[in-house]
Write the structure tokens for this entry.
Amino acid sequence: MLEPLDVANIPARIVFRIAVDADESEEIAAARLWYGKAVASSDADITSQAMINLGNLELRQGNMAEARSWFGQAVATGQGDQALRGLNGLGNVEQQLGNFEEARSWYAKALATGKPIAAPWAMFNLGVLEKKQGHIEKARDWYVKAVASGHADQAPRAMVNLGSLENGQGNFDVARSWYAKAIASDHADQAPRAMVNLGSLED
């Protein structure tokens, strides 16, 4: 019913909302269609948000070239927070492809901005990257920095990952401490995740 509508007569934020609803419902074709319409809107902020969401959609679908393209376009807009998210997005693409040095370079660029929207994400992502490469001390350092940033999402995520890292190293009391901190954060996703991990540790 919506597809034939002339988006020129629909506010850009509504076009974007339709795309997000389709995305959250895992209606991938519809999400692509409506994000594309949002990208074509005259609202610069909505355009850049749609680019980031398309990048994330394609990343989840395993379409790395498309994800890289959308994140790159978001960075090129220079549109505030979305451009910064694009830097981390490009790092995530390269990390999943196993291009660790390129990923590290993108995360470093995000980190260098010092912006609260980008730097804590980069710290967390660098922790994941270093852990994947078996660099435990470096991973630990980046996760601790992400926790210290106080970011509402990345700090609790880093706490949980620190718990898992320490658990894997046999440092059970330290792992318990990090899981407890994540639980105390009351984060909607990470607190329950920490509870499950703590239960597994005790088992």
User: Anything to note?
Assistant: Residues 38 and 188 are 29 Å apart (CA to CA). Residues 1-112 form a domain with the Serine Threonine Protein Phosphatase 5, Tetratricopeptide repeat fold (CATH 1.25.40.10). DSSP finds eleven helices and no strands in the chain. The mean pLDDT is 94.
